[in-house]
Amino acid sequence: MPEVAAGAAPELDGARDACVDALGVLAAARPDRLVVVGPADEPGHALFPAGSPGTFRGFGVDLDVRLGRPDPAGADLPTLPPSLAVAAWLLQHVNWADAPVEALAVDQRLAPERCLGIGRETGTREGRVALLVMGDGSACRTLKAPGYLDERAAPFDAEAARALREADLAALNALDADLAHELMASGRAPWQVLAGAAEGAQGAGGSGLGGALLYDDAPYGVGYLVAAWS
What we know:
It comes from Streptomyces longwoodensis. With about 230 residues, this protein is an alpha/beta fold. Helices cover about 35% and strands about 20% of the residues.
């Protein structure tokens, strides 16, 4: 986000462009509903309706966002966790108006089988459902990374990148939750929600989905991946 990155914002122009391209793929699918999935620190999982607010004041930036269109009733809505606030900013950035939006936050430590179950429930909802899935790879790629250097980080991110590029649900399901936690990879649980949601789209022989990896780098020692499935 340029507002948060300030003078370093140009360093991630490529990542932002890839995110915009990925949202273009979602819009082209003409979904009836967009479900945003992101990691959080709270136990279990929680739903956030359209209009839920988010803020970046905790990062020293005077910036507030809302998920999708604001609630006309002015209801007292829950505050988005950071991952979903970033998604709300991204949707505002592209002026998303292609489908109603809601969000789902999942505990970063949630067991894989529970993530898959949540994904299956999401993917079988009525109508055409698109997912915008948030979450970083490891945060241990360099000495200056948030989690310091861990030699297991690069192979973990490489396998995640391959799975996302190839829409390989079995590989996403197989990501080790304990290792992901040790490597501070917040995307593990949301990716496994994605895998559960995508099961019905695979079709016979697993040929129903195609993936494309649009960005793969580790700025600041954190694995950033952008992929699109359709």
